[in-house]
Amino acid sequence: MKSILVLVFLFFAVVLNAQPVLNAVNFPTEYSANVYRPLTAGFNNGLPGENQIWDYSTISLPASDQSYSLIPLDTIPWATSLFPEANYCFLYVNQVNDYHYYNFYKLTDSSFELVGYIDWDAIDVFTDYDIIFQFPYTYNSVITDTNQNILPPSIVTITYDAYGTFITPYATFENVIRQKSVTPSRTYYTWYSTNPFEMLATGNFDNNFMNFYKNTTLSVSKNKIMQFEISPNPTTGIIDIEILVIIKV
After folding, report:
1. Confidence (pTM)
2. What is the mean pLDDT of residues 149-155?
């Protein structure tokens, strides 16, 4: 009987301390969040390692004037022709200056990669995709890649360096992974919930810069969408971009 009790105890100890693992199946089909940029002086990024607790419950969040949403590709004209391998897109909107920024991704069973972006006045199609995750994404995974989203492109080292409990002023999240990204010019951290996948926060407390993402999961039909007219098409030279902002209700 004593042996059985010991085995049961060990089983529950392993379950309680099991690391969160991210896979492609964890990615949602609908997602929307309000984005907050609070003052973060006095807080820190925390330590790497297992079963960490990041307590930011006392941070005062300002009113949100930004949003971050998962957008169907068929709502973005020319997305298929510009980013033929993309099957996932996130839209960032700053409502103060009506700024829109689309990130296009390729999600497969083995990886999640940034393939390019569109903003007000630029379209950038990467020839060398930025690797964000390789699945299964497990504790202590390290990815070294060329980051095309930084000008000029530079080497970035991405490490799944910690996991644990992430506490915000509005909710507590368990089984959170922290990703550390290091380039020659900056270091920043991102906290992700794994099941379902969502970004909870990103930035660097040491630099007093953080974004918190509060899940709202609004209907895509209520989001403001930018439509693009690109001419001539096809072309290998200079293109003209006309942008029309519409609101679907």
Report:
1. 0.80
2. 80
